[in-house]
Design a protein that fits this description.
By secondary structure, this protein is α+β, with helices and mostly antiparallel strands. It has a domain of 126 residues: Gcn5-related N-acetyltransferase (GNAT) (Aminopeptidase, 3-Layer(aba) Sandwich). The protein has seven helices and 14 strands. The strands form two sheets. Strands 4, 5, 6, 7, 8, 9, 10, 11, 12, 13 and 14 form an eleven-stranded mixed beta sheet that branches.
Length: 256
């Protein structure tokens, strides 16, 4: 049996729901019938350069309602950036990544910041995600997504300028959604803000919004998707073909 025939044989026996990551860095993408090797070291280097360093040349990325330290200072002195964080309105955090090393974590604690829940950064090739299912109504709808997110999270936040919101609709109501951020001159599109109303979970709606956002990313020429996944969304994303790259923990002020 040829290598191509072997791939086709395995793929025929996997449903979309049964897609599995066989080992870190290699996945079979159902629906595309291809083995895609993921060089995690190379992708992490690209991620650090494009998503972290470029987003914040001086370390601090400032947005409309969300700001964060994305890259640690070369000299290791966190105090100047922590002082700048204190001056900013809205939500402000130091986005600590585990591969930045434990010494940085200790310095952030010493500076008075406290950690929130750890998230896993997961990545996938946009071209390896199957198209969205035809039986789920999906819309590009900023206002509906903003209202949905506010009803669940208890706060209203403006979307970044280059974000596109996708919602899944049942009975005329937006019940699940998320956004995809399209930054300029990078290979990565970011998936954020995933939310589903409690009564509509377990029906594949969030998974459908991920597939739609992947489709939008492919159309715009983005190679990679990434997401900061909590334990609730990570298993869903991994079943779609995402693999873990690193972990990240928001460090915030105690009174935030």
């Amino acid at each position: 049996m040829t290598f191509g025939a072997l791939i086709a044989w395995v793929a025929r026996r996997l449903s979309r729901r049964d897609l599995e990551v066989f080992r870190f860095g290699t996945a079979i993408a159902a629906g595309h019938y291809s083995l895609r090797a993921v060089d995690s070291t190379d992708i992490l280097a690209r991620f650090d350069e494009q998503i972290r360093r470029r987003a914040a040349p001086d370390g601090l990325s400032i947005g409309k309602s969300w700001s964060a330290v994305m890259w640690p200072p070369e000299d290791g002195d966190v105090e100047p950036l922590v002082a700048r964080m204190r001056e900013l309105p809205g939500h402000v955090e130091w986005k600590y990544y585990s591969h930045d090393g434990p010494e940085l974590r200790e310095r952030l604690l010493a500076a008075g910041l406290v950690p929130e829940d750890e998230e896993t950064v997961v990545v996938a090739e946009a071209g390896a995600i199957a198209p969205p299912p035809a039986d789920v109504e999906l819309r590009l709808a900023t206002d509906e997504f903003t209202e949905l997110a506010a009803s669940v999270f208890g706060r209203r936040s403006a979307l970044p300028d280059r974000a596109v919101a996708v919602v899944a609709v049942v009975g005329g109501q937006a019940v699940s959604g998320g956004r995809v951020d399209f930054e300029e001159d990078v290979d990565f599109a970011g998936l954020f803000g995933g939310v589903t109303l409690a009564g509509y979970r377990g029906r594949g709606l969030y998974r459908a919004t991920v597939a739609k956002r992947a489709e939008l990313a492919r159309e715009r020429g983005y190679r990679w998707l990434y997401s900061d996944a909590l334990p609730t969304s990570r298993p869903i994303l991994e079943r779609l073909g995402f693999v873990a790259l690193t972990t990240t923990t928001p460090f915030v002020f105690p009174d935030a």
